Amino acid sequence: MPDPFATQEPPDALWFEQTNNASVYIGAIAYGAHIVIFFMCAYYLVQERKKGNWRWLSFIALLFALGTINVVMNIHFNELAWIDERNYPGGPLAFILEQQSIKTNIAGNAVSAVVPFLADGLLIYRVHVVWNRWWMIVIPILAWLASFAMGILTTVQAAEPQSSLWADGTLNFSVPYFSLSMALNIFLTILLVSRLMYMRHKITSTLGAQYGKTYTGIATMVLESALPYGLTSLVFIVLYAIHNTAANLLLPLLVQVECISPMLIILRVSRGRAWSNDTVSEAQLSKMRFGSGGNGSTTAGGSHRNGDTSLITFRAGSNSQLRSKESYV
After folding, report:
1. CB under 8 Å to 210, separation ≥6 — which residues?
2. 307: which residues sit within 8 A by CB, 6+ positions away?
3. Diameter of the chain by CA atoms?
């Protein structure tokens, strides 16, 4: 027996409304993870008490503020569409499509343009740190600036009366914007992953597979390359480019992931587990073992030890630290 209270809207229109509504809840769940990671990151940065940590604190505080604004604006727009303005001519669907230019939605869209600019900026900085070659970041910087300009144009176009993110006029800017942003992110991810894999090979071939996991493990590559950000943006742009309504589900989530990924990198930096210039330069040494046979072996620090080989590990922002096999955990 059919439900007498069920809506009579066409399935496509109903699915569009459902995805817009559900996306806000998905974004709110991701925001919960964002809160936890922000306070963890802030805690370790404060505990370190290093002179330059205020820059990282300011950066994550800005990301957290922008992520908060976005989730609040999304929730408020939902409230307007389904509660406060429920009698809007044409119902919630018409409100969603025709009221994209209200201040609440403009603020949310503006945040969506600024957050990837900041996130990609940090990734470019990390590429510079890991590769330690300035020319590696020339093309990424140009693409980064072009992407931000396209993001501004997309936000302005979507804010026009009777326009939206799904209007043809906006698609002329949004598809190139999201495509360029995604391409930049994937390119940066490839640069980071390839470099980390190379350094993993260098360390494991020199010290053995059991050493250097802090800097060369799979989790390290996933976090330091911002892989979750890249994968989420890839799925979104594919769905958005083919006009698949499911892309709506990823919009608020993408903003939170863009905030979380840089914080995870900074969290590793604050705990001394991320790659630094010192780490890279030290890891490029071809051999860390000296001496032979059963006689004493000379460590990189210049001391002598009997019956074991001294090993070297690396800490971000500090000098290399020697540990012996017996004491390595």
Report:
1. none
2. 294
3. 89
Closest CA to 247 of 91, 78, 16, 14: 16
From the number of C-beta atoms within 10 Å of its C-beta (0-12, 13-18, 19+), residue 177 rates as: buried
Q: What is the pLDDT of residues 21-35, one digit of tens each?
A: 999 999 999 999 999
Give the C-alpha separation, 194 to 36, whole Å.
30
Which residue's structure tokens are 């963890």? 40
The tokens of 227 are what? 């892989």
- Least Cα distance to 281 among 129, 137, 138, 134 occurs for 129
State the amino acid at position 97 in one-letter form. Answer: L
8 Å CB contact between 150 and 176:
yes
Tell me the Ramachandran region of residue 132: left when phi exceeds 0, alpha when psi lies from -120 to 50, beta otherwise. left
**Tokens at 102, concatenated:** 């209200």
CB neighbourhood size of 263 (10 A)? 24
Contacts of 132 (CB under 8 A, 6+ apart): 277, 280, 281
Name every residue whose Cβ is closer than 8 Å to that of residue 184 and which is 6 or more positions away in sequence.
120, 140, 143, 144, 147
For 222-276, the pLDDT digits (tens) are 666 677 888 888 899 889 888 899 999 999 999 999 999 889 888 877 776 555 5
SS3 of 206, please?
A: helix
- Neighbour count for residue 75 (Cβ, 10 Å): 18
Domains of the chain are 11-275 (1.20.1070), 287-329 (no CATH)
Query: What sign results for the dihedral spanned by CA atoms 112, 118, 121, 123?
Result: negative
Distance CA 183, CA 170 (A): 20
Q: Which residues pair with 305 in a beta bridge?
A: 297
The answer to whether 128 touches 134, Cβ cutoff 8 Å, is yes
pTM: 0.78
